[in-house]
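Project standup — Tuesday

K.O.: blocked on the structure for the chain from last sprint. Re-posting the sequence here as requested.
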Amino acid sequence: AMIAFSYDDLLLDELVKIFLNGETANKEEIKELRESVSCEIANIIIGNALSDFIDSSKINITPPILIYKAKSLFKYKSSKIYTASIKTKFGEILIAAVGTMKSIEKN
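H.V.: unblocked you, prediction finished:
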């Protein structure tokens, strides 16, 4: 299964501002920080979700891969997509789990 995160730009900008904690950064640093923060937030959410697993299934997690401005995800005939969102006053994070029914139900 694959888990994808999508951030509203305004929310990601606010998260970067929080991570900067009052410090300033130039345009290039902001771009790198947006990438880093988006991955870190995904890791935090996934890490907290995995800590509540009932069984002792083996779960392999790879480092995040960044995709900019994607228009669609491929969905194969046997795959399922489950979504959830976290809504804030700055926008939302959309979380999608994509995989075969067997892989999603197993995890």
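K.O.: great, moving the ticket to review. The helical segments are 9-20, 27-50, 101-106. The CA atoms of residues 13 and 34 lie 7 Å apart.
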